[in-house]
Amino acid sequence: MRGLADELGVANGALAAYFPNKRAILAAAFSHIFDVTSRRYADERARGLRGAAALRAFLTELFPLDEERLLEARIVIPFLEYAAHDAEMRALYVTLISQWEHEFEVLLAEMSDAGEIGPGGDRRAYIDHLLATTNGAQASAVLLPETATPARLSALIESLLIAAR
């Protein structure tokens, strides 16, 4: 906490008034990233995107394809580490991610209605695949930036869309 306060140029006590510990900072940062990402996607959706085009737009917002999203990934990774060992952090993750899971269900229904995917298939498994791949892409972009290039991550998004069929 002291290091962060020094970095921000504020007194440790001033920071502690808002965030009593590192856990609180990570929870606030993750919630903020979730909200910012959701707003970016909502802006895309407001343009009238549906089905596969909307899923592509959503994944584009989730994947670390630029510096802003890479910074977000650098915050998500330590949050996930805390959430793995902290029931309240895990509950926050489950609550927020369930909103994205619901949106994925909506998108898959739209894709089915538009004939972009067939009626069969295990949609729950596909949603799990989307979430796991997103987390993996974030980790790869942070830890293996030489291989997790925007071009390769964009190709991964396209492969996820193909996998839906």
Describe the structure.
Helix 3 (22-46) crosses helix 5, helix 3 runs parallel beside helix 6 (87-113) and helix 4 (51-62) packs antiparallel against helix 6 (87-113). This protein is an all-alpha fold. The protein is globular and about 55 Å long. Helix content is 79%, strand content 0%. The model has no long low-confidence stretch (mean pLDDT 91). The longest helix has 27 residues, at 87-113. It has one domain: Orthogonal Bundle (Tetracycline Repressor, domain 2), CATH 1.10.357. It has helices spanning 2-8, 12-18, 22-46, 51-62, 67-83, 87-113, 123-143, 150-163.
Summarize the structure in short.
This protein is mainly alpha-helical. The chain contains 8 helices and no strands. The longest helix has 27 residues, at 87-113.
Please name the defining characteristics of this protein:
165 residues; mainly alpha; Tetracycline Repressor, domain 2; 8 helices; globular
pLDDT averaged over residues: 91
Shape label: globular
Total number of helices: 8
The count of strands amounts to 0
Please give the CATH class. Mainly Alpha
| Shape-level CATH architecture | Orthogonal Bundle
Could you describe the largest sheet, including whether it forms a barrel?
none
